[in-house]
Design brief:
Layout lengths: L2 H11 L7 H24 L1 H13 L5 E3 L4 E3 L1 H13 L6 E2 L6 H15 L3 H21 L12 H18 L3 H12 L13 H22 L14 H5 L23 E2 L7 H14 L8 E9 L12 H4 L3 H11 L9 H5 L1 H6 L3 E6 L12 E7 L4 E6 L13 H12 L5 H12 L6 H12 L8
Parallel strand pairs: 5-6
Antiparallel strand pairs: 1-2, 3-4, 5-7, 7-8
Length: about 450
């Protein structure tokens, strides 16, 4: 049996009882995080409105809820739009090896679950499996330095994760799951050149939509190459580095990567690479009584070329700039949703400080999140005093204590409150925290609330 065939067999035969309480608890947290971040993204970033208008103009059967916007679309269109909303703030959890594993999978299975009447436990099981395949593909690829990636990882592994999750939710057998993966493998991509633009968020949105579409087509009998990881001139050769260890994929299964190595809940809505600098800057700021007295800032970081953006053109691009995020932390003493507006970017204090920041990216420092990566900061004040700070691991990341459930709930509630009234926020959190005990009606109520849709009329 090939690696692909064995993986598809395991996916097809996994049942909710196989997942385990620890993985289910983690999956519940991820669903709430994803829903909340998507609602906030839908209400705060113009890319979502632009794309929503485009999709509405195309027309589709309104069967699936669009988070935060109070509209319904077809399943594939809803997956696309929800995936963009879930990723555009760069506030979704981070994974190791680095990718954005949540938005491609959760955005694919929510509209499918709503249309087909799946339970909360069905959703959580599919989510775990869709994340699992992405993690093992990235792990089996070995470490590739950030600047050497040819494609943005969620655009490569996201369609496959979405196809696996959707296929499982639909109950496809191993044969059709293999076809779904073959179809999805021709839908992969995503260029780093688009980081900092609206297009970057569509890497996750299209991963969700096209992976879901692949599963739907496979269900109808559409075919693709069933040897995803063995085919000549196939997925492995096109997207993965030499030395890809396909046999490592057979570690797929309990305790699942959602548990080990787990994920990092983001506490700042920005590229995870910038969290090192943000944490160091917040530490330094405690010793800087007057930020207007900053004469120069020197920063040393790992070599991540996509994060070297000395003068971002938009607030959105600021999310991916080491310089801008450090400046925001130094000036404001916090970094949140309001840090990345065009208005904040163009304020005089920001425009004054940005040219004073000198970034050095070390070619010898690892870009792995848990293997010696750090940021060092030196802030020189006008009176020649120097304030130093360093971050080796941002809070909540691997090797540090996780973000507490209370802190996470604050994040979730703050994001939901961008669109929902307090009672709807309370009910969304309550249902999300008990998702594994929700039937199809509970799932649909959760999505109605998160979508901002009115309650059904009682006749």
């Amino acid at each position: 049996m090939t690696v692909t065939a064995e993986l598809c067999r395991r996916i097809a035969t996994t049942r909710p009882a196989d997942i385990g309480d620890v993985a289910l608890r983690a999956a519940r947290m991820l669903v709430l995080d994803g829903l909340a971040v998507a609602v906030a993204g839908a209400r705060t970033e113009p890319v979502v409105d632009i794309l929503a208008g485009h999709l509405l103009d195309q027309g589709s059967r309104p069967v699936a809820t669009v988070l935060g916007l109070g509209i319904r679309l077809g399943t594939v269109s809803a997956a696309l739009l929800n995936g963009v909303s879930m990723h555009v703030l760069d506030f979704e959890p981070m994974w190791i090896p680095s990718t954005h594993a949540l938005s491609p999978v959760l955005s694919a299975i929510l509209p499918l679950a709503e249309e087909r009447g799946a339970s909360g436990l069905d959703i959580l099981t599919a989510l775990v499996l869709g994340i699992e395949i992405q993690g093992w593909i990235r792990q089996a690829s070995g470490h590739v330095p950030s600047g050497e990636h040819k494609f943005h990882p969620p655009g490569v592994v996201g369609p496959l994760g979405a196809a696996v999750a959707a296929s499982h939710l639909m109950g496809l057998d191993a044969d059709r799951i293999a076809h779904a993966l073959g179809i999805a493998s021709s839908r992969c991509g995503g260029l780093f050149a688009n980081v900092g633009t609206m297009t970057k968020s569509t890497h996750c949105g299209y991963a969700a939509a096209l992976g879901l579409e692949a599963a739907l087509l496979a269900e109808r009998g559409f075919t693709g190459n069933q040897n995803l990881f063995e085919a000549k001139q196939g997925f492995t050769g096109a997207f993965l580095p030499p030395g890809f260890d396909a046999a490592m994929l057979l570690r797929f299964g309990p305790p699942y990567r959602i548990v080990d190595p787990g994920f990092a809940i983001k506490i700042f809505p920005a590229k995870f690479t910038t969290h090192y600098g943000i944490a160091a800057a917040l530490e330094a700021r405690a010793d800087i009584p007057d930020t207007s007295a900053i004469a120069a800032v020197k920063m040393l970081s790992a070599a991540v070329p996509s994060a070297d953006r000395p003068m971002p053109a938009t607030g959105l691009e600021g999310k991916f700039s080491m310089q801008y995020t450090v400046a925001a932390a130094l000036l404001d003493g916090h970094v949140g949703l309001a840090s990345f507006t065009d208005a904040r970017l163009h304020r005089p204090d920001m425009q004054t400080l940005l040219p004073k920041i000198a970034l050095t990216m070390s070619p010898t420092m690892t870009t792995l999140y848990n293997a010696g990566r750090y940021v060092e900061l030196e802030v020189v004040l006008e009176d020649s005093r120097i304030v130093n700070a360093r971050c080796d691991r941002p809070r909540g990341s691997w090797g540090t204590p996780p973000i507490s459930s209370e802190e996470h709930e604050i994040k979730v509630r703050d994001c939901l409150a961008t669109a929902l009234p307090p009672a709807a926020v309370d009910k969304t959190v309550a249902i999300g925290n008990t998702l594994d005990r929700q039937d199809a009606a509970g799932v649909r109520e959760l999505l109605r609330l998160a979508g901002g849709l009115p309650a059904p009329t009682v006749v």
